[in-house]
Design a protein that fits this description.
By secondary structure, this protein is of the alpha+beta class. It has 13 helices and 20 strands. It starts with 10 loop residues before the first helix and ends in a 5-residue tail after the last helix.
Length: 552
Amino acid sequence: MNLKTPDFNDPITLQVMWDRLVFIADQADSALGRTAFSPIVRENHDYVTVVLDAKGRALSQCTWSIPVFITSLPMAAQNHFLPAFPPETLQPGDVLATNDPVIGTGHLPDMVMLTPIFRGGRIVAYAGSIAHLPDIGGRPQSPDSTDMFEEGIRIPMLKLYKAGQPNTDVFAVIEASVRLPAEVRGDIQSMVAANEVMSRELTRFMDEYGLDDVEGLAAAIHGRSEVHMRQAIAAWPPGSYKAEVTIDGFETDVKLCVDVQVRSDSIHVDYTGTSPEVARGINVVPHYRVAHTVYALKCLLDPDTPNNEGCMLPITDSAPLGSILNPHPHAAGAARNLVGHVIPSLIFRALQGVVPDRVMGDSGGAPIWGINCQGHTADGRAYGSAQNFHGGQGGRSTMDGLDTLSFPSNCKVTPIEMFELAVPVLTECKELIPDSGGAGQYRGGLGQRGVLRNLSDRPMNIYLSTERVKHACFGVVGGGDGSRGAVRRNGDTVFPKGKLTLEPGDRLEIELPGGGGWGQAADRPRELVESDLREGLVSITHARAAYAWQGT
């Protein structure tokens, strides 16, 4: 292999270069995570870093990625940033940014950032990142907002940095509008630094290989990924595969409908029949919907090929304007994950008859349960932090669902100690709930119980983002439903969404749903039932009722 004349048709050369691009994104990932100020970025890993080509198409992403971010970022670049900022309007050191939900990921806390990478006086690529900021002003992140304008400050697409210099007016407006200005500014600057790492390392990579641009490399990567996806689609029987699911919504239930239309080498996903948009913060903008659509099908079709633009090309989707999956502009969407996270499970349900060995049961971690704690200390200082809780993963064709797993978000959990440093709470309990996983040949993962106590001498506002309290997670291929969730204050059941006040000493108890099972419970091996009994994951009563276990 000649480094100065790389052959993109050589599979070894291409794989080495491709892996290097992933490593570049991972280097930026490390820089962002190590320098971030807020727990939600630093500990939860609620961010991504992506290398894009000169057309804004995804080339590589960090290994630990948020699925919705890695697809939303290139869509934001291609559909909005590049048309608004043509190459001739940019110079080295410029940094573009916005948190507009329609452009980005569907809610205001997520900042989308794009940095042009110059070589020989022209743009050859872009460094991109998205991170969930700890606060964005307005109503704290919660599903009880009624329009976008309640949910915080909206920053239009602009130059956050101009020729390497920060746009101080923009930073001043942001810092004046949020409760945690130091953390917010620190996280934004960490994103800038991460993009700089990608810019530096990609330039070094191009020097090593003697590349004037990455067009040829991008074409090779995208082309191979697209071929793999289309070949996988072609192996499926053409047809229309439908499903629906009912979830809690806010005041009223929400129905999601899907028609997965498999063609010769492409798939179109139609969400006609889905419930209309609502005047609450659970609406899902198109970018967020598309991202989860692509992610679900990528998992089923070609999970091993590294993700990039080529993987997205064979898949399209649509939803009626005015539906909860395609709301009108300015619709509330702060907690859009409560609906959007269900999309992969819905698609799995539709395709369980096509690829039963690849789908999994509905997951109690879809959606994430967000417990957003906000308040003030005795000296008037604002505090705030959200803790994520996850229910049980759905069962799969080869194994039980994992307990308390974030799916499809892929977020980590803030360590209890770090959360308790950020807000004045004591986590009194965090334990698995026996019998919560749906029965099946492979059962669903268990949900968890958590208890938080307000340690401060002042009231604390809790903003709840929860789901599957009314409607349980469903099983697939004959699997049973998991347990439903619950939210209580001092032992009394409360409305599970929106603002809740904890007085000093009050306790918040949450029970997260278990995942749905995979396959018939009658087919579960006896040794797995007995293993669950020994470990206390199921009770004797449940084993007898669900699995006809006859032991003592």
